[in-house]
Amino acid sequence: MSYVGMMEQDFLDKFMGDGDVTRKHPSLLLKTYHGGYVVIRLALAGHKQANRPFYRIVAAHNKRARDGKYIEQLGTYDPLPNVYNEKLVSFNFDRLKYWIGCGAHPTKPVAKLLGLAGFFPLHPMTITEAERQKAQTQVTQTEEGSEQEQKKAEAV
Amino acid sequence: MSCYTVLCYKNEYTMITPQFTDEAVKDILRRITGLDLQKVFRPIKQELKAPTYKLMTDEQLEQAVALAKEQAEKLLQMPPVLPERTPISDVLSEDRVLEGMDSAKYVFTDITYNIPHRERFIVVREPTGTLRKATWEERDRLIQVYFPKEVRKISPPHIFKEENLKMVFSQDQHEHVLNLCLVQFEPDSSEYIKVHTATYEDLEKHDKYDLLRSTRHFGGLAWYLVKARRIDGLIVDMLKRQLLQDAVSLVRLFHMVHPDTESAQEAANKEATNIDLLTIYAQKESQRSGYIELALQAYKQPAAEALAA
């Protein structure tokens, strides 16, 4: 229940600003999420552009739509590499620490990014995916090797 | 024993040599730069506005001119001259487990608003799995992406390439290039220092010192020449334009920065001032002593004539 109280306060801070009186008497029309929690997740931005994803790292309520209204933007993630072969990720660490301190849950992709950044320890799925990728490349290499040998045998 | 004493002496005097930031040095450089209001407030490309006309008394005009001088002094603030920055090569962690996971690098920037850009965390995760701090060039580029400064571009304009610089110098646009360089690069980056050295060398070669006089870059030019001990051309130019006090200040600055030269020691012994200082410098130090003495003669003549008349 203290959760809901904190969230009500956040809403009131956003919409009504200062004023202790309003805090003690919230409007009945004010929408609150009962039993919901805050997550830090990737929200797709620029949805009018096809085939060009760009994510905002966002603190939002769990029940909200993925691209809907969020509480605060904490950063960005661009999944397509740029001219210098870099994927740009930005984090507002100050506000991130605040939201994690308030009890927000980061989702899996955000946790993976934070692990790669060094802010969190490395996510176990990152390591698993890296090993799977290595195994995949090894399999394709052996396949290619055997194909080349077959071609040489046929040519001869 | 003797080599130990020499070492001591060298250490002592490297601490005493004045730096660019010393008050006395800055004072001299400001005086040499001059304050030509017509050049500082010359018409530049701006948003078009209708002209305003004011009717003023003489007193109001003097006040307006004084205000203009204050603003000109602000515009003529010299950009800092810093040593080149040492490259960053800090590795935060090596994770060979992550090798081959992705073909692109991940660059993480901290976009907290109220930390200075020099202390911002910008970190790169390579495809080999190493987590390292970003290099200076990467830092500059990413800070421009997330906190854009007005005229700065993300990749440096083609004007700073060597071939294009030569063309720009042939068109006498040194000040333009230096202004662009000041906006684009940080004062201790290698490109900034390279562009500035190229500009100063070209100016010294062709004796085009007047292009930078009464701009904010003249101090930097004078400091560079003093450090390189090549102030002859500048002194000759000043004497040609009848700027005796400026030439004297320049020689005094030279003696401050290089107190171990013969001319400095003799000047200190004799406590020379003005023309004597210049003659001592001309005799002892400069390669173009004949030129300087001729110019001094030309300067003494009108003074002698005025005295005679």
UniProtKB/TrEMBL annotation, chain A:
Q: Does the keyword Ribosomal protein apply?
A: yes
**Source organism of the structure:** Cynoglossus semilaevis
Similarity comment: Belongs to the bacterial ribosomal protein bS16 family.
Please give the Pfam families that the UniProt record associates with this protein.
Ribosomal_S16
Ranges for the region named Disordered are: 131-156
Recite the UniProt keywords alphabetically.
Answer: Mitochondrion, Ribonucleoprotein, Ribosomal protein
Cellular component terms (Gene Ontology): mitochondrial inner membrane; mitochondrial small ribosomal subunit
| Signal peptide limits | none
A Gene Ontology biological process term? mitochondrial translation
This chain belongs to the protein called: Small ribosomal subunit protein bS16m
Taxon lineage: Eukaryota, Metazoa, Chordata, Craniata, Vertebrata
Molecular function terms in GO for this entry?
A: structural constituent of ribosome
The record's subcellular locations are:
Mitochondrion
What SUPFAM superfamilies does its record include?
Answer: Ribosomal protein S16 (SSF54565)
TrEMBL record, chain B:
Please give the GO cellular component terms listed in this UniProt entry: mitochondrial small ribosomal subunit
Entries under InterPro entries matching the protein: Ribosomal_mS22 (IPR019374)
Could you give a GO molecular-function term held by this entry?
structural constituent of ribosome
What name appears for this protein in its UniProt entry?
Mitochondrial ribosomal protein S22
